[in-house]
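This part of the workshop introduces the protein records we will be handling. A record pairs a protein's sequence with a compact description of its fold. Backbone structure tokens are a discrete shorthand for how the chain folds in space. The question running through the whole workshop is how a given chain folds. The record below serves as our worked example for the rest of this section.
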Amino acid sequence: MNGTNISNSILEQLADELRNLTPEARKAATYVLENPRDVGVSTVREIAEAANVKPNTVVRMARQVGFEGYEDFREPFREAIRRGATDFPERARWLQDIRKSGHMGGLYADMVQDALRNIEETFAAISAEQLKAAAEDIWNSRNVFVLGVGVNNSNARNFVYLASTGMVQFHAIPRAGSNPIDDLAWADEKDVLIAMTCKPYRHEVVQAAEVAKEQGMTVVGISDSPASPLLQLADHGFVITSDAPQFFPSSVSTIALLETLLSFVVAVASDEIPKRVETFHARRHQLGIYHEEI
């Protein structure tokens, strides 16, 4: 619920009632669920305007979950703000509470703790200047080949999928029935390779980076150590943290870094790209690809 713990019982109840609400009341409830912090500081008219509904619709929504009206509904949110409870809960206390729930609670706490730490450690070691430099090389290239195998294959393809909503020069490799070396056969200094691998390092990824360098390509490497053979070859190297209590490495920081890198590419791109993204999604709405509330 948008990273907040304020009035969680009310938000959970509202979520449970969502299907039982009228379409208009559901729009109001959805806005509250996605923007709970706004409730404590907004009038019924402001919430209604933001949710694109009438004020009496917001009142009906509040009554649906047991309140007399909007002011009654808003009070717990205002109280949460006064208590300073609108921020992410203090981590140590929160994780301790999770651990007390038993063995599975301990696993849950370990997974959460590692995911948060992975994100923090990854971005603590990366500057905006590094991301901007890589983004500019990516934007100014002819083709961008994104390579990931194993668990990173889906990460690479997701990056290309997101980029393709506004740009056409991104290609996930290896292509079906091919291998990375062949996919890079005609690439040169006008092209970029984004490659990722963590311990144990995949030979085909390192080999592809070696070939890319020989052919004059710019290499953006993502790996888990400055000593990684991939980062030794990279023009732009990014170290991610991938710790997890389970047998598999975590992809959380890799995904977060890729999403951030793509946001920088869009930021340095021409004004045409945001318009292309808008057109892409408008077309999806027109074709009925997205579920529309009736």
